[in-house]
Amino acid sequence: MGKKNSESFEITQYLFVIPALIFMLAFIGYPIVYNLVLSFQDINVMTFTSSIKEFIGFSNYTALFSDRDNLLNVAILNTLFYTVMSIIFQFTLGFAFAMFFSMNFRLAAFLRGLTAIAWLMPMTITALMFKYMLSPSGGIINEFLMAVKLIDQPIDWLINNNTAIWGVIIANIWVGIPFNMILLSTGLTTIPGSIYESADIDGARSLQKFFFITVPMIKPAIMAVLTLGFIYTFKVFDLIFIMTNGGPVNSTEVLSTLAYRLSFDEFNFSKGASVANVLFIILFCVSLIYLKLMKDEEELM
Amino acid sequence: MGIFEDITDRLKKWGELDKYYKGPLESATYKDKIYGLPLYSNCLALFYNEDMLKDLNIAPPTTFEQLREAAKKLTMKDRYGLAVSAVKSEEGTFQFIPFAIAAGGNYTSLDSKESVKALQLWSDMVNTDNSMSKEIINWTQADVEKQFAAGKTAMMINGSWQIANLKKDAPNIKWNVTLFPSDKTSASVLGGFNLGIIKGKNVEESYKFLTYINGKEVMEKWCRMSGYLPPRADVAQNDTWQKDPIVKVFMDQMNTAAPRGPHPKWPEFSGAIQTAIQESLTQAKTSEQALKDASAKVSGLLK
């Protein structure tokens, strides 16, 4: 009798998982495999109606990495620069906000909720908003910088090759601060106050407390925020598509906008799929690193 | 491309091909074979703010030189003389091509003196005269329309579909339209939709539908109700398109409006043109160099 119960229990476990499994296979597994196959073929506007789809192996990848004004290399560099810069500022500012709001003054919860608006706003609206704010003719950011005399001429943010990427980075920092802040806040609340008290008794100064108590104790939260933030930022599409569409002159072209352009502007589906796969593989490796770090942390604990 | 049915012979028998404006019909023709019929069209022309021009005693420009002069004079502290859409998408190409064609160039001769002249005109107006905002590289045609409606630009190049939008956005501005400025020749560019028949099973029935919806009466009704321009010159004689002076300008423009391409690899041409526009306007390269590079990129496609 006991055996029958445990058997049916096992089967029930699997039954609960099956709907989610089917969903993942259909909407995530199938597209990934299809994309992979697509990148090894040569499907573009001239060939997608033919019934014979020949395999051309890695030619798409070699072509992308070597010619075409090296757009793929430009895109990889841009994506990396954009992601790293965004993360550095998002994380630092998010951490600062988290520390600030952990001090439990009266309006803390309210203000913390208010900052979350940046995260909750639809990305398309954020993108349009920043596009107008960064405008060199009357945009509020330029007006502000000139009012505090930091610059005397408006900066051509999204119109100049050199500053365009900073324009989108700034918009992304604004979006990412709440995410960092909230996750780090949650981490901060897990630190028992007694540790700080004993540190005070031992005469520790604020900076020492920060670097030797706070940071080590929320290391899991920090790693989660950094890796998840990296993955999420790396695959940016809507923000850049709306603010600059990869311009001017490819200075903000990232992997996702390049893949979109190849597939849907030039109908070169196979090349677009190849770029998407490059994006996928890079992020896949990052996720593996994340999973390994998490496992190590758990084992340490 | 191998998808569309070649209906050249059937259409010749139908006998109404000569009623079409040259441009729209060309857009459905590739290598002398016709693959479809234009359903409805639109084109670009020059919009201008009547009061702003009258205040400075400027007549609506008709040539490239006049356009440049007028734009320079009309530029003031909080407004520009002209706005076009030079954004990195098909819209930028759409706006640039008529300038290139009017100057005597085209997508098949991007590095020709004529095409360079057209791009240099844009670059001069942005970088030398300051009569066009540097932000045009980020403006879509919708953005340009908003600028014009807000009085931020005295003239704009935009299309027939903006007539309704402008009436809504700028009820207090007295605006008018004139033909696209000419240079070596008169030109404009075509937008719109064509209807083609896909090879396969239902060619006969599809063809019957095609000739039905392209028949004089049906097209007249359809275009009138939808506000689009008819690609047939005989339908265009109808009052709907002749009475309203603004719509009439666009109908007259249809005489010189040329299609983009057509070419199955058009998006690659367009991409190269967009990049050249951006490089020239941001002064990353000279117009000559930018178009030379664009031409090199697409040379393989022209065979």
Description of the structure:
The complex is a heterodimer of chains A (301) and B (303). Chain A is globular and about 75 Å long. The model of chain A has no long low-confidence stretch (mean pLDDT 84). Chain A is an all-alpha fold. The two termini of chain A are 39 Å apart. In chain B, the strands form two sheets. In chain B, strands 3, 4, 5, 6, 7 and 8 form a six-stranded mixed beta sheet that branches. The radius of gyration of chain B is 20 Å and the shape is globular. Chain B contains 15 helices and eight strands. In chain B, a hairpin with a 2-residue loop joins β1 and β2. The longest helix of chain B has 16 residues. Chain B is an alpha/beta fold and 303 residues long. The interface between A and B is medium-sized, with 25 and 25 residues.
Strand content of chain B: 5-15%
Q: Helical element count of chain B?
A: 15
Low-pLDDT residue intervals, each spanning 5 or more residues of chain B: none
Compressed to H and E, one letter per element, the order of chain B equals HHEEEHHEHHHEHEEHHHHHEHH
Helix content percent band of chain B: 40-55%
**End-to-end distance of chain A, in Å?**
39 Å
Terminal CA distance of chain B: 15 Å
**SSE class of chain B:** alpha/beta
Q: How much strand of chain A?
A: under 5%
Q: Largest beta sheet of chain A, briefly?
A: none
Question: Could you tell me the number of beta strands of chain B?
Answer: 8
Tertiary shape of chain B: globular
The strand count of chain A comes to 0
Radius of gyration of chain B: 20 Å
Topology:
The complex is a heterodimer of chains A (301) and B (303).
Chain A: H1 2-39, H2 59-66, H3 71-101, H4 108-115, H5 117-120, H6 123-133, H7 140-147, H8 161-189, H9 193-201, H10 206-217, H11 219-234, H12 238-243, H13 255-265, H14 269-300
Chain B: H1 8-14, H2 22-27, E1 29-30, E2 33-34, E3 36-49, H3 50-55, H4 64-74, E4 80-83, H5 90-103, H6 113-128, H7 141-149, E5 153-159, H8 162-169, E6 175-178, E7 188-196, H9 203-213, H10 216-226, H11 233-236, H12 239-242, H13 245-253, E8 257-258, H14 266-281, H15 287-298
Parallel strand pairs in B: 4-5, 7-8
Antiparallel strand pairs in B: 1-2, 3-5, 3-6, 3-7
